[in-house]
Amino acid sequence: MKLFFAEEMKQIDAAATKEFGLPGLLLMENAGRDVAATAESILEDCSNKRIVVFAGKGNNAGDGFVAARTLLNRGAQVTVILLADPAAYSGDALKQLEVLQKCNPFLFTLRTEQDWDKAAIAGELADLVIDGLLGTGFRGELSPDFARAAGIINSMSAPVIAIDIPSGVEPDTGKAARGAVKADVTVTLAAPKPGLYLYPGAEYAGEIMVAEIGIPIELLTESDSKNELITRSLAKTKLPKRQGNAHKGMAGRVAVLAGSPGFTGAAALCSYAAVKAGAGLVTLLTPLSSQNILAAKLNEVMVQGLIERLPGVLGGGAVGDVRHWLEKSDVLAVGPGLGTSEATKEVIRDVLQGCSRPVVIDADALTALVGHTGILNRMKCPRIITPHPAEMARMIGAAATDVDANRLAIASRYAVEWQTVVVLKGAPTVVAAPDGVAYLNTTGNEGMATGGSGDVLTGIIAALLGQGLSAADAAVLGVYLHGLAGDLAAEKGKIGLAAGQISENLPSARQKVEEE
After folding, report:
1. Three-state SS string across 262-305, please?
2. Are 475 and 421 within 8 A, CB to CB?
3. Residue 147 burial by Cβ neighbours in a 10 Å radius (0-12, 13-18, 19+)
4. Sheet holding 331-334, edge to edge
5. Does 358 lie in the same domain as 463?
6. pLDDT tens by residue, 426-461
């Protein structure tokens, strides 16, 4: 499902009117009716239920007027609270307000302190509230009156439906103004917006429902938007098929270059995740001093020791050993727990520059690329990097907070610049491809904020590469399965969820996608 920035959606709305002859009034009617239907679904029966609609003065307000009229027709007691004088309305919103006024709702404008008191009382008595204050044109901070109205909405105990996007949340970035409306449900119009899924906006959106308001499907599918949601339907299209007569050599041979004394857990988690994600053969390449302990940890993985300069520090001869094993493998995953000594980083860089197999680059291998990101452009093989915000920040010379706040834009920029698939981990994880297409993941939960979760993701993506997927497809499917497995694990509790539980739930996650 495509995601649309506010300007992109504005252009599509205009094209619906200009190219297809669809009047804006009709689209507004459809939007408001969908909002009303959502309200009715939440309340089960609208008859005599008290519903309060807060309206700004743009098209978002017009959608709210339609919802109010529709709910009046269904027996609800509707109060409409205007933040603008009726004379300030124009266009389609004015036409809908004029129709609504003829239906005799309880309607008033917030002008005096007495009006504000009435709004607060209406809110306290409400069974449901509809936020039609501000739409996708919002940027920055709320003006005093809008902030006050949003505060009344947020103080109510009744469920809140936001029209298109919660008032005070920026549609493109997810940045939220102080006092932005916190919705229980957001009915977003025609197509979802990135700000509903990017934090902190995601915390304000609640459950997201997409209203089909009559925009011709051609305008949505053929648009130039390069942002998409990773839904279960999309994930299913990426699933590799396995023949009934398949053997382990056909299921993907994965080499994992990882681990060092004190950091064997990362290597074990990554390798085992590759097994649980469907790899046929997994070989772990690790410094010789880590070989025995990892061989004891892993029953389903072959463990090979590499030449060391010192315990846990790879020597130059390790490069030849890694290349030898890569000749027998379909894909390489490199980095988890491997170490950050200068000697080890040099080995990593040599391996990457000479790599002839698709490669997933994570953790300490990303550290090895700090100051050497040009290696990514020189590599001849398909490549995926999987940084968290702090790792990405070190690679580009930025602050981790800035990376996290602009994850969609940053992942997209550097995927194109480095011609590398970028998996920027976090909430939500962003997958950006070298062709400029970026994906926002829709699975996962806060319980996955635990050590080793990223190592598991690296193993999953490597396994999918080994099963024949392209780098972009392996990353998209990998982050979805990773999050879904985490969601399944969280059914027994989020806090205390361990990374290994994510791997254990991978077969079930994959089956759920297959059954979609």
Report:
1. CCHHHHHHHHHHHHHCCCCEEEEEEEHHHHHHHHHHCCCCEEEE
2. yes
3. middle
4. 2-3, 227-230, 438-441, 430-432, 421-424, 383-385, 359-361, 331-334, 253-257, 281-287, 302-306
5. yes
6. 999 999 999 999 999 999 999 999 999 999 999 999
**176-226 confidence digits (pLDDT tens):** 999 999 999 999 999 999 999 999 999 999 999 999 999 999 999 888 889
Cβ atoms of residues 96 and 68 within 8 Å: no
Strand 106-109: give its sheet, edge to edge: 106-109, 77-82, 50-55, 128-132, 160-163, 185-189, 207-211
Asked whether the bond before 428 is cis by omega within 30 degrees of 0, the reply is: yes
pLDDT recorded at residue 224:
85
Q: Are residues 180 and 264 in the same domain?
A: no
Residue 483 structural domain = 234-239+250-514
- Mean local confidence (pLDDT), 298-312: 95
251, pLDDT greater than 80: no
Question: Across the chain, how many H-helices and E-strands are there?
Answer: 22, 20
Burial bucket for residue 157 (CB in 10 Å: 0-12, 13-18, 19+): exposed
Q: How confident is the model at residue 1 (pLDDT cuts 50, 70, 90)?
A: confident
Q: H or E stretch including 34?
A: helix 24-43
In the three-class reduction of DSSP (H, G, I as helix; E, B as strand; rest coil), residue 310 is classed as: strand
Q: What is the dihedral of CA 488, 489, 494, 496, to 10 degrees?
A: 180
Does residue 134 share a domain with residue 270? no
What's the CA gap between 25 and 95, in Å, rounded? 8
CB-CB neighbours of 494 under 10 Å: 16
CB 40 within 8 A of CB 71: yes
d(CA 57, CA 135): 10
CB distance 196 to 208 below 8 Å: yes
Distance CA 145, CA 136 (A): 18
Instruction: Supply the CATH number for residue 473's domain.
Output: 3.40.1190.20
pLDDT band at 307 (very low <50, low <70, confident <90, very high): very high
User: How far is it, in rounded angstroms, from Cα 96 to Cα 152?
Assistant: 25
Say if residue 310 is in the same domain as residue 189. no
For the stretch 16-36, pLDDT in tens is 999 999 999 999 999 999 999
Report yes or no on 244 lying in a domain: no
Q: What is the DSSP letter of 370?
A: T
* DSSP 3-state of 128: strand
| Span 125-138, average pLDDT | 96
Tokens of 60: 């978002």
Gap between the Cα atoms of 330 and 163, Å rounded: 49
H or E element, residue 472: helix 471-489
Same domain, 193 and 121: yes
